[in-house]
Write a structure and sequence with these properties.
Largest sheet: 6 strands, mixed, barrel
Strand order of the largest sheet: 1-5-2-4-3-6
Radius of gyration: 24 Å
Distance between the termini: 57 Å
Strand content: 25-35%
């Protein structure tokens, strides 16, 4: 019996654990297409849901549930902008994201008011 136990312990000691596989670099999580609108003047200078003061000239956005501080890359055509979630919204049904006026200008959607944008989480 002692021989068998010694043999098992000896064999177990010889077993090496494989080297961990290299972890891939984390790619941005795609959120797919979102209906985005923008907001500005009536809310400029007011407190956002995160406690920050809303600046329509900053690259920020409102989303119903993404954590405050989440950075999103938004694309519309060949225009791209990275925004930070600082508020909750939009309040209009059927819309997924409210961009600050500056973000809407960067995407070229101010005139249209609403656009379908490709969105992914950056951090």
């Amino acid at each position: 019996m002692n021989f068998l136990l010694s043999f098992i312990l000896h064999m177990a000691a010889r077993v090496t654990t494989p080297a961990p596989k290299p972890q891939p670099v984390e790619q941005p999580r795609k959120l797919n297409l979102m209906v985005a609108s923008w907001y500005g003047h009536p809310y400029h200078g007011r407190q956002t849901a995160s406690g920050e003061v809303f600046d329509m000239n900053a690259l920020t956005a409102a989303h119903p549930y993404l954590p405050f501080g989440t950075r999103l890359r938004c694309r519309l055509g060949d225009q791209t902008v990275v925004v930070r979630i600082t508020d909750r919204g939009p309040v209009v049904p059927g819309r997924d994201l409210d961009l600050s006026r500056a973000a809407a200008v960067a995407l070229g959607m101010v005139g249209a008011g609403v656009a379908v944008v490709d969105v992914e989480v950056v951090s």
